[in-house]
């Protein structure tokens, strides 16, 4: 046991682990950080995520189209079943990208870097979908496609952070340097998340306040609440399926690149 303790102390000094992280905590925190273990764990999980996402999308779409129209918005209210899940997932995905960037930058876990890279494109797609559906919803309700409202502007900034992350990784040929630069940008972008979330509370905005998660409970009628929750679960399951598949593809790509580099050196 003493020998194991001394080995871990040396590993802590080399990897600069936080003082409170012991062998058991480190196993719990980074158990799936090993690419081989991650590949084994996600092999059966990924197809299940795709099936669950497909089923939830079908059920959510059916509930969305069979729900009655709103007494004020009419059938336009159905845009909510796409807009709200897309906007919520856009925020949550960037949170996952930021956390993954932190672990990639501080602990230098290649799997965390792969997770951050895999989250960028679907996160940008969800955020773009939120912007487009928001404009489609806003035109009949507000009489305009776009206003420089605090919520709309902060979501647009979020979308630009996604594009900046993707562009920065593509602009630098050295993958290690690209990963570090993109991780820094990913961490900086986290500052925008509370601005997006609380913009309707901090400023007098045209965008309506939260109606799903708020103090005192939701203000949505059950005929709208259940289709919305189903679509949010569907969008979440779809992202999980895409994310896991993209991470697995990235691991395989890096292994192939490593094998090619070794073959070139041996040749």
From TrEMBL:
Sequence intervals crossing the membrane: 47-65, 85-107, 119-138, 150-168, 180-203, 223-247
Record's keyword terms, sorted: Cell inner membrane, Cell membrane, Cytochrome c-type biogenesis, Membrane, Transmembrane, Transmembrane helix, Transport
DNA-binding keyword on record: no
Residue ranges occupied by any Cytochrome c assembly protein domain in the UniProt entry: 40-207
InterPro entries: Cyt_c_assembly, Cyt_c_biogenesis_CcmC, Cyt_c_biogenesis_CcsA/CcmC
One example of a Gene Ontology biological process annotation: cytochrome complex assembly
One of the record's GO cellular component terms: plasma membrane
Location in the cell: Cell inner membrane; Membrane
Pfam families listed in its UniProt record: Cytochrom_C_asm (PF01578)
UniProt superkingdom: Bacteria
Listed GO MF terms: heme binding; heme transmembrane transporter activity
Membrane topology recorded in Swiss-Prot or TrEMBL: Multi-pass membrane protein
Family assignment from sequence similarity: Belongs to the CcmC/CycZ/HelC family.
Function summary: Required for the export of heme to the periplasm for the biogenesis of c-type cytochromes.
PANTHER family: CYTOCHROME B_B6 PROTEIN-RELATED (PTHR30071:SF1), HEME EXPORTER PROTEIN C (PTHR30071)
Protein name: Heme exporter protein C
Protein source organism: Brevundimonas variabilis
Gene name in the database record: ccmC
């Amino acid at each position: 046991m003493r020998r194991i303790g001394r080995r871990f102390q040396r590993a802590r000094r080399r990897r600069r682990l936080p003082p409170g992280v012991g062998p058991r905590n480190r196993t719990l925190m980074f158990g799936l950080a090993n690419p081989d273990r991650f590949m084994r764990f996600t092999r059966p999980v990924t197809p299940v995520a795709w099936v669950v996402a497909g089923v939830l999308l079908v059920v959510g779409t059916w509930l969305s189209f069979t729900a009655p129209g709103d007494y004020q918005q009419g059938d336009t209210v159905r845009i909510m079943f796409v807009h709200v899940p897309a906007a919520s997932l856009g925020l949550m995905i960037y949170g996952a990208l930021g956390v993954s960037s932190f672990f990639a930058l501080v602990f230098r876990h290649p799997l965390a870097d792969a997770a951050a890279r895999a989250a960028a494109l679907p996160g940008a797609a969800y955020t773009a979908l939120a912007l487009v559906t928001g404009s489609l919803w806003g035109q009949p309700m507000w009489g305009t496609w776009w206003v420089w409202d605090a919520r709309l502007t902060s979501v647009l900034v979020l979308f630009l952070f996604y594009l900046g992350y993707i562009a920065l990784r593509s602009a630098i040929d050295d993958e290690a340097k690209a990963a570090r630069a993109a991780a820094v940008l990913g961490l900086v972008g986290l500052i925008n998340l509370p601005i997006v979330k609380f913009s309707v509370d901090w400023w007098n905005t045209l965008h309506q306040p939260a109606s799903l998660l708020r103090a005192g409970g939701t203000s949505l009628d059950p005929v709208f609440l259940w289709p919305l929750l189903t679509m949010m679960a569907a969008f979440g399951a779809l992202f999980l399926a895409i994310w896991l598949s993209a991470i697995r593809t990235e691991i395989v790509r890096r292994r192939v690149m490593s094998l090619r580099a070794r073959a070139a050196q041996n040749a």
